[in-house]
């Protein structure tokens, strides 16, 4: 393998920021204020496990408090470090600004390989980590609200919410201290799938603009497009599932940590997911051809590449060989700053992380609002409204019959129309609207200024301008 000097993840994010800031009219002081991470708290705590005390290292970085609470996931991975959580926290600031969720940016991490511990041990470790953060208001409904990220999910969020509630028994808004909770524990429908769903909506929006699609050298719709996905975890699985089942795309390759599965006709995503859950990897999987060097397949021919696992996987060592004309960054930071430049020169179109994976924080926002408002979303309308909707449905059917159009409203449509939307309908339509609006705002900058060469720089410009506006109006 070539050894090439790459900037760190945080430096990479800063370089991307700098490229955008250079095209803007910011004072150097404000530019620096927005770029830097405000503070990072490091905690080392001991937990007695299997008769011995084990020490764990965790972080919570707060990048920008121009809006509070600050928001960002907690990652469990063996080599999490300060640079990484600061990069991820910065991305959260820009992401929240781009999709207009009223949060600053934060991120947490715990150095742990969760696969080495059983559920009871993970609960002990999570509760202890949460205790350390809650004590310092680094988990708090109005100050800092975590969510799932790599290696964590609903289960860990439920433990964190319970830990907060135990330590703050009189806080009526306790449930809003963390998002991504299970539905029965104050969560919201559609949160588990939200980031992958957002990737699908982002691609749908991109394909609504033939001019943009042509920039990637592609044409038509998502139907029949060949897609390579790296990482079949929460984000990659849902993106792959929805794109293959609902948009007619073919997932020709899935790259996992122990190799890849290739099937030019389209990998059976639910079957593969079940296989991984049972066997811990893709080796010996019967649903396609197994390839041991999975990472090499990032360079394979396809229409769309979806890195949905780790940062830095497309870097100076492989960027020149990437064949995908369109890359959507479902993961945070999968393309380094140097690789980004190489891809731009090659003419590849990159849909950037701060937009592409914003579905998670968008639906987290809905969950937080639901928790704070103490209402259930999407319930039955009043009876008078139901009668009103019935009249409209009758009228639509009468019109269709009169004009001989032969329309028939589906029972599902009638039910939804008359009962009001379910919580899941509301979440999906809110997410779709958010992804469309954010794309339009990036696109406008991308197309209106010649020096704006790509969607990433446009996304950063929109986000930085909004953060700057917030600081200008309220002061530092
Ligand atoms: N979960 C969310 O809501 C969310 C939101 C926004 C962004 N993200 C980002 O998406 C990415 C994935 O997060 P997730 O929540 O899906 O994590 P996850 O832990 O659910 O899944 C990660 C997947 O990647 C695989 N993987 C790990 N190392 C790999 C390697 N070297 N090669 C190939 N596959 C590998 C794992 O086996 C796993 O299947 C991260 O960058 C995360 O920051 C997640």
Structure description:
Helices cover about 45% and strands about 15% of the residues. By secondary structure, the protein is α/β, with parallel strands linked by helices. Among the domains are: about 40-185, Rossmann fold (3-Layer(aba) Sandwich), CATH 3.40.50; about 215-345, 3-Layer(aba) Sandwich (Rossmann fold); about 380-420, no CATH class. A seven-stranded mixed sheet has the order 10-9-8-7-11-12-13, sandwiched between helices. β4 (about 75), α3 (about 80-100) and β5 (about 105-110) form a beta-alpha-beta unit. α1 (about 10-20) runs parallel beside α3, α13 packs antiparallel against α14 and α15 crosses α16 (about 455-475). Nicotinamide-adenine-dinucleotide binds near residues 149, 233 and 308. Keywords: Oxidoreductase. This is Glutamate dehydrogenase. Pfam families: ELFV_dehydrog, ELFV_dehydrog_N. GO terms for molecular function: oxidoreductase activity.
Short description:
By secondary structure, this protein is α/β, with parallel strands linked by helices. It has helices spanning 9-21, 28-35, 82-98, 119-135, 154-167, 194-207, 210-215, 234-246, 269-279, 337-346, 353-356, 359-373, 383-402, 411-419, 423-448, 455-474; strands at residues 39-49, 52-64, 70-71, 74-77, 104-111, 144-145, 226-230, 250-256, 259-262, 289-291, 304-307, 326-328, 349-351. The protein has a 7-stranded mixed β-sheet with strand order 10-9-8-7-11-12-13, with helices on both faces. Strands 1, 2, 3, 4, 5 and 6 form a 6-stranded mixed β-sheet that branches.
């Amino acid at each position: 393998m070539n050894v090439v000097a790459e900037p760190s993840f945080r430096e990479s994010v800063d370089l991307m920021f700098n490229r955008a800031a250079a095209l803007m009219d910011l004072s150097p002081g404000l530019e620096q204020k927005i770029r830097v991470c405000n503070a990072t708290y490091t905690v080392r705590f001991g937990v007695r496990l299997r008769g011995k005390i084990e020490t764990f290292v965790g972080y919570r970085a707060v990048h920008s408090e121009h809006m509070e609470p600050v928001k960002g996931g907690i990652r469990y991975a063996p080599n999490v470090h300060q640079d990484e959580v600061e990069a991820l926290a910065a991305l959260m600031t820009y992401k929240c600004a781009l999709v207009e969720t009223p949060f600053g940016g934060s991120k947490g991490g715990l150095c742990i390989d969760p696969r080495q511990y059983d559920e009871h041990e993970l609960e002990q470790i999570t509760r202890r980590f949460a205790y350390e953060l809650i004590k310092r208001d680094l988990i708090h409904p109005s100050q800092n609200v975590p969510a799932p990220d790599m290696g964590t999910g609903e289960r860990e969020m439920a433990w964190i919410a319970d830990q907060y509630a135990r330590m703050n028994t009189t806080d009526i808004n306790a449930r809003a201290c963390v998002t991504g909770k299970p539905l029965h524990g104050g969560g919201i429908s559609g949160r588990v799938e939200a980031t992958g769903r957002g990737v699908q909506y982002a691609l749908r929006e991109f394909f609504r603009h033939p001019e943009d699609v042509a920039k990637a050298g592609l044409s038509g719709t998502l139907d029949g497009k060949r897609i390579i996905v790296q990482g079949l975890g929460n984000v990659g699985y849902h993106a792959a599932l929805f794109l293959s089942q609902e948009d007619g795309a073919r997932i020709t390759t899935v790259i996992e940590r122990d190799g890849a599965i290739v099937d030019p006709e389209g990998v059976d995503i639910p079957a593969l997911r079940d296989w991984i859950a049972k066997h811990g990897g893709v080796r010996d999987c019967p649903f396609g051809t197994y390839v041991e060097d999975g990472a090499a397949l990032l360079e394979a021919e396809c229409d769309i590449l979806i890195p949905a696992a780790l940062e830095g996987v497309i870097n100076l060592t492989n960027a020149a060989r990437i064949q995908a004309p369109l890359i959507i960054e479902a993961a945070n930071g999968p393309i380094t700053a140097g690789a980004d430049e190489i891809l731009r020169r090659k003419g590849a179109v990159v849909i950037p992380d701060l937009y592409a994976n914003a579905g998670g924080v968008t639906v987290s926002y809905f969950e937080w609002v639901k928790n704070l408002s103490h209402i259930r979303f999407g319930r039955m309308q009043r009876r008078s409204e139901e009668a009103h909707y019935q009249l409209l449905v009758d009228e639509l059917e009468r019109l269709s019959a009169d004009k001989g159009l032969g329309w028939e409203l589906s029972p599902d449509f009638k039910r939804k129309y008359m009962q009001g939307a379910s919580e899941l309908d509301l979440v999906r339509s809110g997410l779709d609207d958010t992804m469309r609006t954010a794309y339009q705002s990036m696109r406008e900058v991308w197309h209106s200024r010649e020096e704006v060469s790509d969607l990433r720089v446009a996304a950063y410009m929109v986000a930085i301008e909004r953060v700057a506006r917030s600081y200008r109006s309220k002061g530092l």
